[in-house]
Amino acid sequence: MLAPVGRHMFGFAAIMLGVSQFVWHGFATNWFPVPPALPLHQPLVFLTAAMLAIGGLALYPRRSARAGLLLIVAVFMFAEVFWARRIIYFPSLFGTWAGFAEQLAPVVGAALCYLSLGTDADADVADARIGDDRLHWARVVAQMLFGLCLISMGIVHLDALAPTADMVPSWLPLGGTFWAVTTGITFMVLGLAIVFRIRARLAAYVATTMLCSFALLVWFPRIVAHPERQNPWGGTAITLAVAGAAWMVANTLEPVQRWRLP
What we know:
262 residues; 10 helices; globular
């Protein structure tokens, strides 16, 4: 059964991120911009690392998965506080909004998985066909939020075109700029497909595939080249977390979407 795969991928990413914080005694600041001057900064590093690792392990048995999701979401929401702080101070910088959206994507996926684990189907609400109207619309809103997160990821690829192109492996044909633009536009199209519920399940699976390919082609070689640096480990973990979230979102979408009125 493939339904738990997204949840398991999400758990692996959480464990990886938590272990990286233990090893380097710090947050992966590109994604968790917690100020070093924050009171109790070091204890918070280890506390959130433990929450990620324990939460990730808890996602593997179905009976403890809900508790694990809550632990992981709490850590990502903690990071969102500091992205919100950046938005307040730098509202005109799209990168701050994009950072907030990137960390929101795992939260949305985890929330949808949490709801689905209350059904008889393992993380597959679409097949369970249950839930009252309020729960149905809560899922729809969450799915649309995830689509908006993908759109934001696409825009940031185009907004930061040069840095994105530099991350593309040099051996790929057509050059880094081509792939940066192509993936940026693709993310935007996939996000719109989810928002407007046009082959949304397929779009979420395609997004999962893209994100896994980024982890494999972009981040994994950086781990091999510089295993002593936290950044590539953090980048791989966050990418896999969003990929797992995309799979979890896909599992809550019907193969062909229909708007259901209350």
